[in-house]
Amino acid sequence: MAQQWWRNAAIYQVYVRSFADGNGDGVGDLAGVRDRLGHIAELGMDAVWLTPFYASPMADGGYDVADYRAVDPLFGQLSDAEALIADAHGLGLRVIVDIVPNHTSSQHPWFVEALSAEPGSPARERYVFREGRDGGPPNDWESMFGGPAWTQVADGQWYLHLFDPGQPDLNWQHAEVHAEFESILRFWLDRGVDGIRIDVAHGLVKADGLPDAQCTDQGGLLTAVELPYFDQDGVHEIYREWRKILDCYPGERIGVAEAWVRGADRLALYLRPDELHQAFNFHYAQAEWSAQQFRTTIDDSLAAVAGVGAASTWVLSNHDIERHVTRFGGGELGLRRARAAALLTLALPGSAYVYQGEELGLPEVTDLPEEVLADPKWERSGHTERGRDGCRVPIPWSGSEPPFGFGPSSWLPQPRDWAALTVEAQRGDPTSTLSLYRDALLLRRDLPVEGLEWLESDPDVLAFRRGPSFTCTVNFGSSPVRLPRPGRLLLSSTQEPELEANEQTVTLPPSSAAWWTGEEDAHAR
What's the number of CA atoms in the CB half-sphere (13 Å) around residue 30? Predict the structure, then answer.
């Protein structure tokens, strides 16, 4: 296997519930993923990341795990997971699975035991139980899904859940918790997975004494202020131990952090040589449609990882984030910007993550009926926040009517106008978003491994060179921009004729990006 494959990999995220339904119950499953692995391989991806498929009561879409070594019947059996890993490897795809170590399900045997045990018992010490304060919760911590982060049990104590009450937080000061998750890691690595994605990697360690956060709307401040329950320095010792386990296995098994932190410098701490290999770059995903914002984020990201010898990741959407077609304005404008952002993202040095359906140009579904909303944010917020279901609507594969080949039905309804966005409808169209992704991912394999040099350009344009012969230009503005011709056109996010160049200049349309090969008239800053 290639050394450090992950440094420049293109990785496709599968939200299992919404990818493909293999058994006809309206919910995506492992059999459905196996049937559609060819799509991911043909797209040009290097790896696939699977969201949780473990035994779970599904209080939070599977991120509430009752048994980390069993597959939930909704998704199949353990043999299905093992067969999927083998099939993926046969197609040249590596497999990354989710590990959820911050919390378990409230139906996990440990927590069931804790509820039946006395206060202060060893069973309760695996979780975070505390006495209340002044007749209420132990402190002012808030759930990321709304409301307090504490729930009171029958004997009067309170337990911590930074998310849903069905997701009690584990106590990572307990040796048994450490030992259990080291065993879980080995269980899946023994079955051939090539990496683990660590859910809420920033949340495992809480500040000593559980002090008040002294602020409200804490869920909206994850990357803005220091919170006593996130990004505590103690998490790094856990990942040093996990890195030792990963390094015991052949073929470069990797650890990927989902870490919402205050800046690129804090994120880089998770990527030191003896810790994890990658961390999601949410600062990039949060950038607004602005040349200056994207350039600042790119510069900060590359500088931070360079200090620890790591590679950056680039992500535009995932199962927790509004789809970027909508985030960038929606409609035709949002799609133009999303296509341009795709070329920008795939041109950057480092690893790119693509969320399922992104390659089809899917927008956020903002008008789901209230009765189908399943995200716990909907209930926890008192029906004021619709939650993340809009980016989790099953993707369309074929046909002219919902459920568009997903299965006989779909657990969330798809818009009828997605008929034009199916894989089938886009496959033979060279101007489609699917074709754009395929072309870009193929060309990306030949890009230089490292390096980025900014070029002189209009304030609304980002232009950079990688190596002596590759240039990327992106016009964030609302008007065409004339630029010195960077070379021969390789790929454009728009098919508009004004992109055609004369001998010395090109006109870059608004909200568009282009890739070029050659060295003509590239003036480095």
Answer: 25
455 three-class SS: strand
Instruction: For the sheet with 461-466, list strands across it.
Output: 453-454, 461-466, 470-475, 512-517, 488-492
Q: How many helices (H) and strands (E) does the chain have?
A: 13, 20
**Residues in CB range of 310: below 8 A, 6 or more apart:** 268, 271, 272, 277, 278
pLDDT digits (tens, 9 = 90+) for 353-403: 999 999 999 999 999 999 999 988 888 888 988 999 999 999 999 999 999
- Please give the average per-residue pLDDT across 13-17, as a whole number: 98
Q: Quick check: 132 pLDDT over 90?
A: yes
- Rounded to an integer, the average pLDDT of 139-166 is 96
Give yes or no for a contact between 75 and 16, defined as CB atoms under 8 angstroms apart: yes
75: tokens are 């998704």
CA dist., res. 8 & res. 31, Å (int): 29
Sign of CA dihedral 323, 325, 326, 328: positive
What's the CA gap between 514 and 33, in Å, rounded? 33
Dihedrals phi, psi of 355, to nearest 5 degrees: -85, 135
Strand partners, 465: 453, 471
Torsion of CA 14, 16, 21, 23, to 10 degrees: 140
The pLDDT confidence band at residue 478, using thresholds 50, 70 and 90, is very high
- Output the average pLDDT for the chain: 94
